[in-house]
Amino acid sequence: MENFSPRRLAALLLVCVASPALAQTWRPPTTVKTLPNGLTVVLSEDHSAPTFGLCISYGIGSRLEPEGRSGFAHLFEHMMFEGTPVAEKGIFDRVTESGGGFNNGQTTNDFTQYFESAPISALDALLWLEADRMKTLDFSTKNLDNQRSVVEEEVRVNVLNQPYGLFFAFELPGKAFDKYPNAHNGYGDFKDLDAATISDVESFYEKYYVPGNAVLALVGDFSSDEAFAKIEKYFSAVPAKPAPPRPDVSEGLLTKERRDQETDNLAKVPALAIGYRAPSAETHDALVGAVAGELLHNGQASRLYQALVKEKQVALSVSGGLNFNNYTPFEYKGPTLLGSFIVYPPGKTEDEVLAAYDAVINELARKAPSREELERVTSKMRSDWYDQLGIPVQRAQTLSHFQLLQGSFDRAYAIPEELAKVTPDEVRAFASKYLVKSNRAVINRIPNPSPAAKPGANLAPAPGAGLRFSSVSFNAEPVFGPDPVSGGAQ
Predict the structure, then answer these.
(1) Nearest CA to 280 among 427, 406, 439?
(2) What pLDDT score does 119 carry?
(3) What average pLDDT does the structure give for the chain?
């Protein structure tokens, strides 16, 4: 198949957006192979520039960490940058950045990913380094204490010392779900992190950081056969170990609305977090839910923004979508929330905001959106998805995630076609089934009264810690992951 330059790709994207019938004509050459030790490899050539993007996703995220080990998935994201007995801390960064590249890691509910982009000349070195840290790490008390302190400081900065404290990301799932995997705080309880020993950390690594629990995706300026030979050369020496069993995370719909109220010492105005239980990403209902989430939340043209902020003026900001507090609406496995985060004026009450909110939701459940409105939303979603696939490192991430979570990378390329086929009545049916009061949890977060808190002050605070909330902010910063505090190379 022909390889496209950035200009050709941009032109193709315009055609794809304009015509649903042509939306799936771009599918770059992609192959999948498995090493004898169980490591799955996905390769996709892209000769538009002499670079590559690489992603290794491990099947361990905050949802999957054992009880009593809360925060370990995120802690290990940090530990993977502490070096190995062969390659000391800092070498990974120096090799990547010496040619103008970058590397990073992120933790989500269902996977932890490590990714880098660099000139193709650095491919051998970075494959060697990734294989080296898949074999073992530099397990020392010094490194553990260092990264435990970094993670706990990240919690202080992003949660404890921030208005609203990411309650829509951490406390709302705990209110909406019942099973430990779905409901616990993925950042980790300090008592679990403080109790961690070197033995605990090594056991966690030996269980989850194994070839059979990982997918390596590589996209860039190479021959697939030659690239696979390199991967086989560097990774075949990693001992074979199977993927650990996955816990049962399934939960049905709620049968009764759950409400709670909290106080916030740092917030100046109140906020609501609303979450509806939604199905797993591999289902068609979830894809329809992603569209419904965009129709309700995506920008100033969205239904909720127009109704709550512009018309009724009961809200200062509205954001949300399907899986909005974790990653993208398509890259997860298990139940999630279709949620909203609403900051509202101090002169309004929770009931007033919810009444206006419910009117919008009920209208969608009662009457299907017009074909024009639906096409506006799905065209934007398809365009954003193609943008993601067009960048080598982001395509590598996407292919790695789909292969890991759904057993095949193919659906990553099928998403635009599926979006184009969603019908108005499917969106209405989704709203009437899932977006009902009995299937949701609501947390009202109000400022803690104090002499320093003046009504009306700071009416438009940032919604929280660098998160992007639109469910098509593909590759947006997830809840757990590097930030100016934690970074990939502490």
Answers:
(1) 406
(2) 97
(3) 88
- The answer to whether residues 276 and 435 touch, using CB atoms and an 8 Å cutoff, is yes
Same-domain pairing of 279 and 208: no
Q: Answer with the residue of higher pLDDT: 189 or 5.
A: 189
Please give the C-alpha separations between residue 109 and each of 45, 61, 62, 63, 485, in angstroms, as whole numbers. 29, 5, 5, 5, 21
CB 442 within 8 A of CB 259: yes
Q: What is the pLDDT of residue 326?
A: 83
- 40: helix, strand or coil: strand
Task: Decide if 49 contacts 85 (C-beta within 8 A).
Answer: no
| pLDDT digits 0-9 by tens, 207-232 | 999 999 999 999 999 999 999 999 99
Q: Give the range of the structural domain holding residue 406, as residue numbers without chain letter.
A: 258-447
Task: Say how far apart CA 354 and CA 437 lie, in whole Å.
Answer: 11
Is residue 366 in a domain? yes
Q: How confident is the model at residue 25, as a pLDDT? A: 61
**CB-CB contact of 190 with 152 (8 Å):** yes
Give yes or no for residue 477 having a pLDDT over 80.
no
In this predicted structure, the answer to whether residue 474 has a pLDDT above a threshold of 50 is no
Residues 108 and 196 in one domain: yes
Selection from 409, 351, 66 nearest residue 216 by Cα? 409
Cα torsion 142, 145, 151, 156 to 10°: value is -130
Q: Are residues 65 and 184 both part of a single domain?
A: yes
Residues 194 and 265 in one domain: no
Q: Tell whether 205 and 352 lie within a shared domain.
A: no
CB 246, CB 64: distance < 8 Å? yes
397 and 266 part of one domain: yes
Question: Of 202, 220, 235, which residue sits at a domain end?
Answer: 235
pLDDT 10s digits, 77-105: 999 999 999 999 999 999 999 989 999 99
Helix (H) or strand (E) holding 403: helix 392-406
pLDDT digits (tens, 9 = 90+) for 284-308: 999 999 999 999 998 999 999 999 9
Residues 382, 307, single domain; the answer is yes
Domain total in the chain: 2
Q: Cα torsion at 59, 62, 65, 70 (round to 10°)?
A: 160
Identify whether residues 194 and 312 lie together within a single domain: no
Residues 326 and 332 sit within 8 Å (Cβ to Cβ): yes
